[in-house]
TrEMBL record:
Assigned keywords, A-Z: Hydrolase, Membrane, Transferase, Transmembrane, Transmembrane helix
Bilayer-crossing regions: 113-135
Coiled coil: none
One MF term in the entry's GO annotations: hydrolase activity
InterPro entries for the chain: AB_hydrolase_1, AB_hydrolase_fold, HAT_MetX-like
Residue ranges of domain AB hydrolase-1 in the record: 38-160
Pfam families in alphabetical order: Abhydrolase_1 (PF00561)
Presence of the UniProt keyword Cytoplasm in the record: no
Protein name, as recorded: Alpha/beta fold hydrolase
């Protein structure tokens, strides 16, 4: 695994007015040396981390040598959301999770980039929670990003997302086995009935045992419990409902007009969490005021998790963006 780097942030003011005396920001660098190549920022999803490629990399099929996001050509930076526990320092976990918003995380990520003297970014990409953070990062610094690529996400928390965040929060705070039980519910948000039914077909492990679907869900709960901390899950889940790039700003179209970046909205047609209808409406609104906004759709039976499963489709969507840059000389400011 690539070395985990750290930036020390002191006296960081949260959106609610509270101050954090010390916040460690952990990240990993992949590909070309910093400031020698175009920079790509990758934001991780709810249970993800900065280890995006290489040994145990969760997006290995998309990022790496000779992949769509080619580390032979790009410098790739991935931050860990503070409190996600990937540094294995339990003293850095965050208990006051409701103090934080996605805007706070986006500001922390920009603090990290400015510390690294990164003032322009070729592409900012993220799926799910990571894509929501990418939207907010772009709203905060609308002239510093060339391409915004939010995948299976939204610029706002819909009522549907807020409702499911509440259910997850209730499970996490009231269950005897909170991480495992919350994961059972979450997995059914990330997949579709069609995907589940097609895969398991009412089969059992053996004649007298539990159904295959039950075993699959239980195993997902156990795996997450073994690698994720309760405080981390509470924070990541809570952040989902704080997403809104229009909060204390103007409406969506007004915010969009301030953004210089090409915006590539990537939806999943069967996403039951960040539903594609919302993405389509956003695209139609954005096109009325901004020319360089584009809509792409992954077609899949698998639902929200298709952005991790349908790599061939995602690669075809992203290939023109990243290949075009390969033909141009670029050094980050």
């Amino acid at each position: 695994m690539k070395k985990l780097e750290k930036i020390d942030l002191f006296n960081f003011g949260l959106e609610n007015g509270k101050q954090r005396a010390y916040t460690p920001l952990f990240y990993q660098l992949f590909g070309q040396p910093l400031h020698s190549a175009p920079i790509v920022i990758v934001n991780h999803a709810l249970t993800g981390n900065s280890n995006i490629t290489g040994e145990n990399g969760w997006w290995n099929d998309l990022i790496g040598e000779n992949k769509t996001i080619d580390t032979n050509y790009f410098t790739v930076i991935a931050f860990n959301i503070p409190g996600n526990g990937f540094d294995n320092n339990f003293g850095n976990l965050i208990s006051n999770y409701k103090d934080f918003t996605i805007r706070d995380i986006a500001r922390i990520f920009w603090e990290g980039l400015f510390f690294l003297n990164v003032n322009s970014v070729f592409a900012l990409i993220g799926g799910s929670l990571g894509g929501s953070i990418a939207w907010e990062m772009t709203a905060l610094q609308p002239d510093k990003i060339a391409n915004l690529i939010p995948i299976a996400t939204d610029w706002k928390a819909t009522d549907w997302v807020i409702a499911n965040v509440l259910i997850q929060d209730q499970i996490l705070n009231n269950s005897d086995d909170p991480i495992a039980d919350a994961r059972l519910h979450a997995m059914l948000l990330y997949r579709t009935p069609q995907s589940v039914n097609q895969r398991f077909q009412r089969e059992k492990l053996n004649e007298n045992s539990i159904f295959q679907i039950e075993n699959w869900l239980v195993n997902h709960g156990i795996k997450l419990k073994n690698r994720f901390r309760l405080s981390s899950y509470k924070l990541m889940n809570h952040l989902l409902k704080t997403n809104d790039i229009t909060r204390e700003r103007n409406n969506f179209q007004s915010v969009i007009t301030t953004i210089n970046a090409n915006i590539h909205i990537v939806a999943v047609d069967t996403d039951y969490f960040f539903i594609a209808d919302e993405n389509r409406k956003d695209y139609q609104q954005a096109k009325l005021v901004k020319e360089n906004v584009f809509y792409h759709e992954i077609n899949s039976i698998h639902g929200h998790d298709a952005f991790l499963i349908e790599i061939n489709q995602l690669s075809q969507i992203l290939e023109p963006i990243f290949n075009k840059q390969k033909q141009q000389k670029y050094v980050s400011a």
